[in-house]
Write a structure and sequence with these properties.
alpha+beta; Structural Genomics Hypothetical 15.5 Kd Protein In mrcA-pckA Intergenic Region, Chain A; 3 domains; Pseudouridine synthase; three-stranded antiparallel β-sheet; single chain; rRNA pseudouridine synthase activity; 24% strand; S4_RNA-bd; 7 helices
Amino acid sequence: MAEHWVISHEDAGTRLDVFLSKTIDPLTRSQAKKSIEAGIYSVNGTHAAAHYLLKSGDVIAYDGEKEILREEAEEDSRTLRVAADDLRIIDETDAYIVLDKQAGVLMHPDHHHPHDHPSGTLIDAVIEHAPEIVKVGDDPVRPGIMSRLDKDVSGLVVIAKTQGAYEALKKQFAEHSVTKEYLALVHGAVEQDDADLKFRVARSSSKARMAALPEGSAEGQAAWTHVRVIERYAGATLVKLQILSGRTHQIRVHCFAFNHPVIGDILYKPRRAQRNIKAPRLMLQSIRLAFNDPETGERKQYALEPDPAFDAVISSLRNKKP
């Protein structure tokens, strides 16, 4: 994204929010207005109203730091806190715990939610439930965590309770012998019944999110997502996804680059999404997890029914099925 724009004679007389929504993809006019109000865009070094009529020679400046701070504040306001009593334990042995993480719950503390105050992250609740986990793993911030989900993604995760289990599970993840399957509702009609997405993933240089790189790029990290269509609707598709790598926001950024972003995703969303598709949450859920028991070697498989939000959105979509 450009850091500034100089208004030409042709654009003189245009409202500031209209100019930004026409110039920046995928910024909508309402998003532009909110960004202007937050001071992310200024005119000639000062705050301007969204309805300000631009003049020839005006300079619009973009403040990326303010945008990051606003996005982080919005994320924090939507965070759900949990305690040990709130944990949805699917299975527990002496070696590991399998949990159904709720949407809106952070996996572990970060710079907004440190360990030294009641942050209410998933791992804080797990430590309250099983204090011995605090010494497990390679990173004291995320002890025992083997599989990580974004805050707004729900579903199955596994946490090791001993260092031996941690090392055994870590090896399985590295060898890609762990099965991770997700359910998602995405925008648009996915034409292929099966598709392999192999866009390399890197942190965006202009926004607080990840970016999929063009084919043939040597930068970023290799990532692989397999997509299988379950059902198509008017303006949306229900898909199952398997990931053969574990990159930050992998499914969300891959679907966005595939031109079928996940419905309800406020970070990776199309500019002209179907406005009549309403979703109460990010429509992405980890529904299946399989690995070998680190103590017995037995293949363990866990599955969840779709979150009720899927049924609600799908019911409305079926009425408009093509």
